[in-house]
Design brief:
The complex is a heterodimer.
Chain A lengths: L7 H50 E3 L5 E3 L15 E7 L4 E4 L19 E7 L5 E14 L2 E12 L1 H36 L1 H15 L11 H47 L5 H27 L11 E2 H15 L6 E5 L5 E2 L3 H18 L3 E8 L9 E7 L6 H8 L16 H10 L3 E6 L6 E7 L3
Parallel strand pairs in A: 9-11
Antiparallel strand pairs in A: 1-2, 3-4, 3-7, 5-6, 6-7, 8-10, 11-12, 12-14, 13-14
Chain B lengths: L1 E5 L3 H13 L3 E5 L2 H10 L4 E5 L7 H10 L5 E6 L4 H10 L3 E4 L4 H15 L6 E4 L2 E4 L4 E4 L2 E3 L3 H12 L4 E2 L1 H8 L10 H13 L8 E4 L3 E4 L7
Parallel strand pairs in B: 1-2, 1-3, 3-4, 4-5
Antiparallel strand pairs in B: 6-7, 7-8, 8-9, 10-12, 11-12
Helix pairs in contact in B: 2-3, 6-8
The chains are: A alpha+beta, B alpha/beta.
């Protein structure tokens, strides 16, 4: 199998799971640390209590002789290796007394310590157990003016504390693990839900490819709607283009038959006047040329595609066109005014808009007396394919009512129209239609001649 | 008038050559852009017909370059695809007019003579200088309203002088416009033709339409006026 880039859901899962894991590890360590701190503090408190208990159990007689009287007969201090120990040293560090439990261990309890000093430390015994011990140095008065400096030490095995810590860690791992699993499962479920439209798009595109569908469905979320409507528009325009090519071929073949038949008849006829048959052939050749030109233009119109195309700047295009037309109509005292805001753009093929405007403005230049006015506006209230309105007016004779209707009428083909009338307007009507726009022919109120309006997609 | 035709399709090139010669033009032919550029710059061309889809150097580029070299004569473009994109690009490159293929020769001729008039500063197809009038469409010449019969060579010389009325035009300039590339420049045929023109236009020697400037050439010295 080909290894492409990881899928979106895998990326998301990794992106979510890694921080989550890190978060849990950090939280667990923090909680563990706090727990250990507290249990150490608790151990120390207990050792403090034992030191106090030891102090209570110890007495010095008037000669300064040590008497230890353990009050609790069941004290673990009497049981060797019980894990609880106690010892008493004098100020020089000499051992005065140690609990019977210390017998048989290699633990060293207590050390030299000044009066008021406190020492807490851990020690590891031969058998591997860890013992925590707390020592406290005191000045003990046992007669008038007599005192002794003593160091009291209590020690306890940390084994129970370690057991508790282990249990706590096990429980914490259990809970956190379970929580982690629940969160990941939730995340996976959410991702499935969030990515459902993407998966749907994938399936619909697969259906398009296999020919099972002709369009992407509706109801995509906002983030994808742009892509799907754009794709649908592209599909639609491609399909239209194919239809147009097929129509063009059909029309071309069909409409060429008649002039060819006339030519054949002219050649084969017993017409004695060679000039007359030559004239007939010439006429048919003109017709063939016109048909070919019309069908080629029709097929070449780009039409409708709105993906991947930058808007065509209308003002710049009109200025170029005006400069070109001023040259072509140089024999005429011509004034072409352009009234269009900069930044106005046509959404579609630049060749198409130039073809449209070239036809319409050139016509106006041909038919006008002296003035042509081209104005372009954007009307955001209208539907998208008709937002851009381009109006071309002239001060010529105008276009007669019956011709207006014929041009606008659906299905009128330019090659069926009066030849040589100079109106490429059927072509304009057709191209505007491809873009879902509108085309109006009217009389100009300001200049008195024709007024042509194109409504096209723009922004 | 000397016209340069740059066209790679042999059939169209030959038809243009035949028809233009018949219409009284002397014709230079070029089959690709580079050859066309050489002719456009080196020969004393009055007007050029340039196809847009040329091998080696496109028509657009050819026009841009000849304009960059300071050539101001009229340029007519031929477009196979009758698309406004090509027309606008060609006209922006420096062409003056266009004709779409397939064309009628009459249309090409009408546009050529319009271009010639425009570059000569004339607005209408009827040229008038003093009492002399010349109609470039019908090739009719009259003096003070009376028609004058001219031969094809005489007409071509008069048309050239009238289009550039007021300018001094050298003898070699005139001979080059009468004939094509290979021509014996020492021949005195121009002097003979000018002499015949003077006699036909001004038998009484009242108006003296054509001045001879020794060592420089000829000049139509009658004032231009709207026809």
């Amino acid at each position: 199998m080909m290894r492409g880039p990881p899928s979106v859901s895998r990326r998301l899962l990794i992106a979510v799971a890694l921080p989550l894991l890190l978060f849990f590890v950090l939280t667990a360590s923090a909680i563990d640390y706090v727990f250990r701190e507290q249990s150490t503090a608790a151990l120390r408190d207990r050792l403090e209590e034992q030191v106090v208990a030891l102090i209570t159990a110890v007495d010095l007689d008037f000669e300064g002789k040590l008497v230890v009287n353990l009050l609790d007969p069941e004290s673990r201090l009497d049981v060797p290796g019980s894990g609880q120990y106690a010892a008493l040293r004098d100020e020089s560090g000499r051992l005065l007394w140690s609990s019977p439990s210390l017998a048989g261990t290699d633990l060293v309890l207590g050390s030299k310590l000044p009066v008021g000093g406190v020492d807490f430390h851990y020690q590891i015994a031969r058998d591997g157990t860890t013992v925590a011990q707390l020592s406290r140095g005191l000045q003990w008065a046992y007669g008038s003016g007599l005192s002794k400096k003593l160091v009291f030490t209590a020690a306890d095995s940390t084994a129970p504390q370690m057991r508790e810590l282990l249990r706590f860690r096990q429980r914490m791992a259990g809970w956190f693990g379970a929580l982690d699993l629940v969160l990941l499962a939730t995340m996976a479920w959410m991702m499935r839900r969030a990515l459902a439209p993407v998966r749907r798009l994938e399936q619909e595109i697969a259906a398009l490819e296999s020919g099972g569908a002709s369009q992407l469905g509706q109801g995509y979320p906002r983030e994808l709607a742009g892509v799907t409507t754009g794709l649908n528009a592209l599909l639609e325009s491609e399909r239209n283009r194919i239809v147009r090519y097929r129509d063009t071929l059909g029309n071309l073949a069909h409409s060429l038959k008649t002039p060819l038949a006339v030519i054949r008849a002219s050649l084969g006829s017993a017409e004695t006047d060679a000039r007359r048959s030559e004239a007939a052939i010439q006429l048919e050749i003109d017709r063939i040329a016109q048909i070919v030109e019309h069908q080629l233009k029709r097929a070449a119109a780009g039409g409708g595609a709105t993906l991947g195309q930058a808007p065509v700047p209308v003002l710049a295009l009109l200025s170029d066109l005006r400069a070109a037309l001023m040259k072509v109509h140089a024999g005429k005292d011509l004034h072409v005014e352009i009234d269009a805001p900069p930044g106005l753009g046509f959404l579609g093929d630049s060749g198409d808009i130039l073809e449209l405007l070239g036809n319409v403005v050139d016509n106006a230049c041909k038919w006008c007396r002296a003035r042509v006015l081209v104005s372009a506006r954007l009307d955001p209230d209208r539907a998208l394919p008709r937002r851009l309105s381009i109006v071309v007016e002239d001060d010529g004779p105008g276009i007669p009512q019956e011709l207006r209707a014929r041009v606008i009428e659906r299905g009128v083909r330019a090659d069926e129209q009066v030849p040589g009338h100079g109106l490429g307007l059927a072509m304009v009507h057709e191209t505007v239609g491809i873009y879902g726009g509108q085309f109006f022919i009217d009389a100009s109120a300001t200049l008195g001649g024709a007024r042509l309006e194109l409504r096209l997609p723009g922004r | 008038m000397r016209v340069l035709v740059v066209e790679d399709e042999a059939a169209i090139r030959e038809v243009l050559k035949t028809d233009l010669s018949a219409a009284g033009y002397s014709v230079d032919l070029a089959t690709d852009g580079e050859e066309g550029l050489y002719a456009a710059i080196e020969y004393p061309i009055d007007v050029a017909i340039i196809d847009l889809g040329l091998p080696k150097l496109s028509g657009f580029e050819l026009i841009r370059r000849l304009r960059a070299r300071g050539k101001t004569y009229g340029v007519l473009i031929l477009t196979a695809r009758d698309r406004w994109q090509d027309k606008v690009e060609g006209l922006s490159a420096g062409a003056d007019d266009y004709v779409a293929k397939p064309f009628h020769f009459a249309e090409v001729q009408a546009r050529l003579s319009a271009l010639l008039r425009r570059t000569g500063g004339w607005a209408s197809p009827k040229l008038a200088c003093g009492p002399v009038e010349l109609d470039t469409r019908t090739q009719e010449v009259s003096v003070s309203g009376a028609a004058v019969e001219l031969t094809s060579f005489e007409y071509r010389i008069l048309e050239h002088l009238m289009l550039r009325a007021g300018e001094v035009i050298s003898k070699s300039d005139l001979t080059e416009r009468l004939y094509e590339q290979d021509f014996d420049r020492d021949s005195n045929v121009v002097e003979v033709l000018i002499g015949r023109l003077r006699r036909k236009l001004d038998p009484q020697e009242h108006i003296k339409p054509i001045e001879t400037l020794r060592g420089r050439g000829y000049r139509l010295s009658l004032p231009r006026r709207p026809a």
